[in-house]
Structures are given as structure tokens and as C-alpha cells.
From TrEMBL:
Biological process according to GO: rRNA processing
Protein name: YBEY Endoribonuclease
Annotated organism of origin: Circaetus pectoralis (black-chested snake-eagle)
PANTHER family noted in UniProt: ENDORIBONUCLEASE YBEY, CHLOROPLASTIC
One Gene Ontology MF term: metalloendopeptidase activity
Gene for this chain: Ybey
Key words of the record: Endonuclease, Hydrolase, Metal-binding, Nuclease, Zinc
């Protein structure tokens, strides 16, 4: 299936092909290659609005995930029809991530791929609301 990537911001240049390859490789490693995933590269404004609307935190953040299915951590969905082969959407706060990388000296493309992996884990039911879940 596919990874659909949309760049909805113009502040930070995004190398789409390496990001798409990283997400495809991770989907394969997790046994989820047959599921679609949407990736949206967003600026601080959109991330602030989404974070405020869905998490009541009106501030930019690095990643927000919107799962299509509710699954237990690590389980794959069990679609009943072709239209349900969708894990959901990941919004990457690329402007926020870029600002953090400039402050820490980390490589932007590497951090972007790791952050996308974090978002994909959320689509597969992993959460970190408590210290135990974080560990």
C-alpha cells in the first residue's frame, strides 16, 4: 500500500523521498506494509491549531497522530474491507523539529525520520500518558 506525503508548509525544505523511504521501511519492519499511511509536514501555525483542538495545548509540537483504528499496543488492525487498510495520519511539525535541531545541533533529516517513527507507533496503539507507558 502507500505512504501519501503532503508538505503543507513552506518554511523548512523537506526531502520527501528519504522520509517516505524511512516510513516505508518501518512499516515493513512492523509488518504493516499493506496499510496506507498519510504524512503531513506542517508548520507551527497548523500544529498549534491541531494541538489546541485535539489535546487542549495551543502550542506547536513535533508530532500528532490520528489513528484510523483503535488497536492494542503493537497489534495490527483487522480490516473488514479494502477501504479499512489505513493506519491513519501523522502530522509532523517540521518547523518545530527544525528549530529544535538548530538548538541542539542534531541532523534534521534523521530527527524527522525518528519523529515519523514515533507517530507510526502511536498509530499502532502505543501511548505514553504515564511513566510506565513511556518506558
Amino acid at each position: 500500500m502507500s505512504v501519501v506525503l503532503r508538505n503543507a508548509q513552506r518554511v523548512v525544505p523537506v526531502r520527501r523521498a528519504p522520509l517516505r523511504r524511512a516510513v516505508c521501511a518501518l512499516r515493513a519492519a512492523l509488518g504493516a506494509s499493506r496499510f496506507d499511511v498519510g504524512l503531513v509536514c506542517a508548520g507551527n501555525g497548523l500544529m498549534r491549531r491541531l494541538n489546541g483542538a485535539y489535546r487542549q495545548r495551543p502550542e506547536p509540537t513535533d508530532v500528532l497522530s490520528f489513528p484510523f483504528h483503535r488497536v492494542a499496543a503493537g497489534e495490527l488492525p483487522r480490516p473488514s474491507c479494502r477501504d479499512e487498510y489505513n493506519l491513519g495520519d501523522i502530522f509532523l511539525g517540521v518547523e518545530y523539529i527544525h528549530q529544535q535541531c538548530r538548538a541542539t545541533g542534531e541532523d534534521f533529516d534523521s530527527v524527522l525520520a525518528v519523529t515519523a517513527a514515533h507517530g507510526l507507533c502511536h498509530l499502532l496503539g502505543y501511548q505514553h500518558r504515564t511513566e510506565g507507558e513511556w518506558q
